[in-house]
Write a structure and sequence with these properties.
Order of helices and strands: HEHEHEEHHHEEEEEEEEEEEE
Shape: globular
Helix content: 10-25%
Largest sheet: 8 strands, mixed
Number of strands: 16
Number of helices: 6
Structural class: alpha+beta
Strand content: 25-35%
């Protein structure tokens, strides 16, 4: 997987689409496991109805800040009424489930640390990548929220910046249900903004440092893919996804990895390794 030509394309363009990466059976297993997790693990006692807004408008709270090594549930803002009640079934209301799926759930762990994933990382030249987080993003019908233009290294900063997102389509992703859009080669310009832990305390727990660039719509090109496709996302490439106002959901599984060899995970990042769950190495995690 990921031929030398594809690896070159990734580093040249800032992203790479590999169709038919997962089989239809693997995709079905992930989707069934997602449903099982929602049915069996979400309850009001342990999980408040927390909403999530992605991209550079992201807001945080303690439930989010401590989610890195847990399975937690984040809902779309438009799925909760003024009284704080869900207005839709959970699978049609959830924005995402994260961020410890890759270490806590056996199905997601097997997919994340599979030989196929390891081969991709090796072919990208990663010597000792660690996987800090994994999540399912559901982008439900009618209310799936927009993700504004952003760079992943804004939120998950390493020095030097060697971050790669692995983004797996669990359904067909089109311009109508919220596929990714990219600005090709925008990863060569660095980043101008970071989300960091608030040095003044926990209210709010994170702040943004630096200024956003302004991007024109015509700079973006769509990354439509079929279910089972893998999209590799350079940590500094500018990308976005539009709101989903269609009748179809857009389920995906995504995780990030960064190069540990010669690299440092920033202590200012919102997510930090814990004593119980240090960030696992892709090549050796059991």
């Amino acid at each position: 997987m990921a031929t030398p030509e594809q690896a070159k394309q990734f580093y040249d363009q800032g992203y790479l689409i590999i169709e038919d990466f997962l089989t239809s059976e693997e995709v079905a297993e992930i989707r069934a496991q997602t449903q099982k997790i929602v049915d069996e693990q979400h309850n009001p006692e342990d999980h408040p109805l927390t909403t999530f807004v992605g991209g550079n408008k992201q807001k945080t709270d303690d439930y989010f800040m401590t989610s890195g090594d847990k399975i937690r549930f984040f809902f779309e803002t438009d799925a909760i009424d003024e009284q704080g009640n869900l207005t839709k079934p959970k699978m049609e209301a959830l924005n995402k489930i994260g961020h410890g799926l890759h270490i806590l759930d056996p199905v997601f762990k097997r997919i994340t640390f599979s030989e196929k994933m390891k081969n991709i990382a090796r072919n990208l030249g990663l010597k000792n990548p660690a996987v800090p987080q994994g999540m399912v993003i559901l982008k439900p019908p009618k209310i799936g929220s927009v993700v504004v233009p952003h760079q992943d290294s804004t939120f998950l900063y390493t020095d030097p910046m060697r971050l790669v997102g692995f983004w797996i389509a669990l359904e067909d992703c089109t311009t109508t249900n919220g596929c990714l859009w990219f600005i090709p080669k925008s990863h060569t310009d660095g980043i101008t903004r970071r989300m960091v832990r608030n040095p003044e305390g926990s209210d709010p727990p994170t702040i943004f440092r630096g200024e956003d660039r302004v991007y024109r719509d015509e700079e973006f090109i769509p990354g439509e893919v079929k279910k089972g496709a893998l999209v590799l996302i350079h940590g500094e490439v500018v990308h976005k996804s539009d709101a989903n106002r269609s009748d179809k959901s857009r389920h995906i599984y995504t995780f990030h990895m960064y190069e540990q060899e010669g690299g440092q995970w920033s202590s200012e990042n919102w997510q930090q390794p814990t004593e119980e769950h240090p960030f696992p190495s892709l090549y050796s995690f059991q």
